[in-house]
Specification:
Helices cover 37% and strands 31% of the residues. The protein is an alpha+beta fold. It has one domain (3-42, 50-92): Alpha-Beta Plaits. Helix 1 packs antiparallel against helix 3 (71-80). It is globular, with a radius of gyration of 13 Å.
Length: 97
């Protein structure tokens, strides 16, 4: 079952966050992740507004989990930790009817 990696981000340091994004892109691809949305237009309807929204599809929840805990992604994350406020969740997709 595929899974979605959904991040809502408020960037506080553009330069550091760009380093994160460049490194994270490779780590995500290495685990079969494909971006479906990445910082495009959005409309906040409820909850906290975080102006950068990212959705990536992975082959499975396990692949997304393994990506997050991989050495490559953790190295990328070092650049985001003090450069953003983030919420990140992995959600297994519902199979088509």
């Amino acid at each position: 079952m595929s899974a979605l990696w959904i991040a809502h981000v408020h960037v506080t340091d553009e330069d550091s966050y760009k380093k994160y994004a460049a490194l994270a892109t490779g780590a995500i691809a290495d685990h079969g992740g494909v971006f479906l949305a990445r910082g495009g237009r959005y409309e906040q309807l409820e909850g906290n507004d975080r102006p950068r929204n990212v959705v990536a599809r992975f082959p499975s929840l396990e692949a997304a989990h393994d990506c997050y805990y991989s050495a490559a992604y953790q190295a990328a994350l070092d650049h985001a930790r003090n450069a953003s406020e983030r919420d990140l969740v992995i959600v297994e997709e519902t199979p088509p009817a």
